[in-house]
Amino acid sequence: MTRQISALVFFSFFATLGYGQSVNNRGWFFLSNTHSLSKKIDLLTDVQLRSANQFEYFNTLLLRGAFSYNFNKKRSLALGYAYKGDWEHQQSKIIYSPENRIYEQYLYNFKAGKTELNFRLRLEQRFLKEDDRSFFSQRVRAFISAQIPLVADTGFTRGLFTGVQDELFFNAQNNANVNNSLFDQNRSFISLGYRVSKKIDAEFGYMYWLQKEKEGITRTNVWQLMLTTKF
């Protein structure tokens, strides 16, 4: 099972390399935390900072929070809100484009031996503003990941691991307001990480980001530092 999922992620990763019209290079920092409020309720919070093309300047802030209900240790449902702000430098001007989202999420965690796997399905209601125009769209995101221990203790509570993941984005409503396409984007990521404890993971890796725009397809190389905590 682990080999099949890893092969699927790597296939998706390399299959996208042959497409696109332009290549950008960016750096992301991603902090993700799960805070247990009770046996059934968790508070989920994410903070992401993104640089602009060729690491020239900071241009994106993403803040995301949700309450998650745990059916058991493997399955959960969440309802949340996200804010995304983009600051694009165009000639002598800085253009600010905000986006507010409401989202619903289903998460399934399971193991294959020591390997930890996650499947996530997310539906987003997107409220965007661009060039003094406000519009609405809905998007579906399907995510799968695997954390494979390389040099770790028996229970994988500490040690070195590799991470592979892939996420597909599809426009479910009003795609004319975004890119006139059902397909929105694909993000494939591979990383090397270290589990400090059951509560802290740190990893650094490379993401290949393929995004459909109205005028074509954009390819982006992203170097991401990610910190995941559970308290």
TrEMBL record:
The lineage's top-level taxon is Bacteria
Q: Please report the name of this protein according to its UniProt entry.
A: DUF2490 domain-containing protein
InterPro entries per record: DUF2490
Taxonomic classification: Bacteria, Pseudomonadati, Bacteroidota, Sphingobacteriia, Sphingobacteriales
Pfam families with a match to the protein in the record = DUF2490
